[in-house]
Amino acid sequence: MRWFSRLNTVFYKLVMSYVALIFITILFVGLASYHYFSNIYNEELKKMESKILNHTSQNLLNEIVDIVERSYILVAMGDSQISPAAYLFDQPLNGNHEKIHISQQYLKKIAASYPEVLDSISIYYRSNDIVVSSLSGVTYLDEENASIDLEWLERVHNREDADATIWVEARSVPRNIHSNSHTAKLVTFIRPYPYTIRTGEAKGYIALHIKESMLQKLIHSEKSSEGNMLLIGKDGTILTHNFPEDVSSSLTALPFYRQVTAPDSRDGSFITSVGNTETMVTSVTVPNTEWKLVSATPVSEFYKKTVPLRHTLLTICIAAIAIGIVISNIFTMRIYNPLRPIINKAKSAFDQGKAGHQLDENEFSLLDRVINNLSVKIYDLENTIDSNAPLIKHHFVLGLLHGKIPSKSELEGTMRLIGLQLPYLKHTAVLIRLDGATMSQLTLENRQFIKFNLIKELEQWDKDNTRLLAAELSEYELCAIVNANDDVTKKLERLHKDAKEYVHDNFMMKLTFSAGRPASSLLELEPSCREAAAALKYAPIHPEQSLFFAEVWMPMEERDEEMPAELTARFSSELRSGRLSQVKAVVEEFTHLAQSGAYSADHCWAMWTGLTDAYRSYLEDLPLKGSESQYDEWLKTSVYPVDIISCKSMLIQAIEDTYQNIEALSNQKNRNMVTSAKQYISDNLQQSISLESAAEHVRISGKYLSRLFKEETGLNFSEYVNRKRLELAERYILTSDMTIEQISAHAGFNSSAYFIKKFKETYSVTPRMYKQYYLSEEKRTPKKELAH
């Protein structure tokens, strides 16, 4: 057990490593020597096998492939006079039976030209669905129980998308499909007609049945004394072979089959095992085809003469290993002695033997565990810092501006952590406010995109020995730290100009820029940030400006002056009196005072709040509903930092709309009261009607009703009543046979004389004459002309 624990030490590991290295080196030298000599013989064997296969492949090309190609051309490439067999590809069957007979005779003639190679020729005509064979004549495929072998045609139909040429491997084909006697072993060559298209689009197929005996003859005549050959088609089909019967059924399972049929396989030789026999496998490609001719020859007999050589090499290797062990111990001691203190410290660090670690722990494992542990921690720490660098920087900037970083050591540590350098002596806090009206109309994604790009642009601004560090402060504001040496004001003016142009050119937006006074240390930036924020409060009061320096605006923050207290009271009074011009004058006075520079920003906005509260109180006392109070909602939200000019315009517009709504409401009410009084008069024309009774009906004073009547109708009350009574009397005159006295009474007149007087004043004629003129057949004067 103690021996095994020693094996875990670095010393023994190094010894074993040297021994293994020597052993491997010697073994490599021995094997290299062995392979050098044996490979010379192997190369000669490969050359011999290649010559045999090349000769055989050339014979296959000359005596099989060329004959098949020529025969196909004779059948398919001539016209109907030269090759009658091609005639039926484009002609119907009816009326061409003689052509079928001629075609069969023609196929027999071609097959007879090469009797040792061709067994027969068959043609399938797709349009006529028949097969014409030089051996069995014509076969109608639409008939049941076809009497010839059509396995080759089934192969074609199962490979409609195959390449143009198909080779069917050697198979036993009976001369009569109903009998197994008189069979022949054939290899079939199939090509579509015409040759230039793929099989799925062919008009038919030409099949040349080749005698396998001819292939076997060529293979047997050229094979080596101990080897076997097989001919493999382009799709991996074994066309023929001369392997023994016990192997022939599983040729595709032989280990070399996949290697020689792989798409990227090349011609050549290699050694592999076939069963328990080491075999030299050589393959060549038959010219003008994609066939593989493969030879498999046992090579065990060729290695018998190398046995003494192997024994000699083995003896030399054993001796070299023994010497190497001694030398390895010497080198190991030199390497291990400096390493021993490091291992002891690692064991102490992990408290080996007390914290669950075995005393015989592998020292390499211990060192590896120490290094891996440190590597993982360092890697995790680096990833965490890289992932959180933007967030760390963001909090760092806000911490500096708000005075949240307590010490110089923490400041320097954070800057090292995120790789920041601010080398110059002066540091200035800057606040940038984007146009809130434009930003509020954008989506959250677009707002973040604008702020991100502006921050990136600011931090890349490196002009005149100036460095910037920027971060997001709020929804519409950014903050930045400007680090420079001298001429800070000019650099800030240039920075403001560049940032303003960048935002306008890229986002069509405005910005406001404020800067505090420079600080000599990053830890003293909080006052500069407060000053920048105070200066930025004056941006809404002076919207025509976009740059605010604390040196200019901070004195205003210290002023205690207040605007006249009676300004708010006067605004409320003028507002309730309805004098719009006076109301506008008060608002303009407030705006002028706010922009005069005599009052602090907080006081100006406090006064503005007083004005809006007075307007809101005025709205609450009005009987307005719905849209009339829409500006009240604006007043609740329209507060700092909206600029004061927009506030003034919106307030005046709101007051103007309110006055218009009040006037419209009053006019509608007056019209309603006049309409009600008119209806009262119409309903009581036959009764005694007085101004007081009508006023009592509509619940207003008689004097007010008389004025409304005059405004709406242009007539006073009594004139309007007489007009309506005369109109009623006119209808009675034209449509009834009542007397003047009766008409006067029914129209509400107290006497007929008064009625006649008023009628004549209005129509210029007496009631009697009016009726006569109107009803006269010779003289029908229109009513309007009579009135004139």
Features:
disordered C terminus
Describe this protein's structure.
Helices cover 56% and strands 14% of the residues. It has 788 residues and is of the alpha+beta class. Strands 3-2-1-6-5-4 form a six-stranded antiparallel beta sheet, with helices on both faces. The longest helix is centred in the first third of the chain and has 67 residues, at 10-76. The N and C termini lie far apart (145 Å).
Strand residue content: 5-15%
Main sheet: which strands, in order across?
A: 3-2-1-6-5-4
* Shape, per Cα inertia axes: flat
Count of DSSP helices?
Answer: 27
Rg measurement, Å: 58 Å
- By secondary-structure content and strand pairing, the structural class works out as alpha+beta
Fraction of residues in helix: 55-70%
**Mean pLDDT over the full residue set:** 78
Low-confidence stretches: 352-357, 781-788
**Alpha-carbon distance between the termini?**
145 Å
What summary fits the major beta sheet? 6 strands, antiparallel
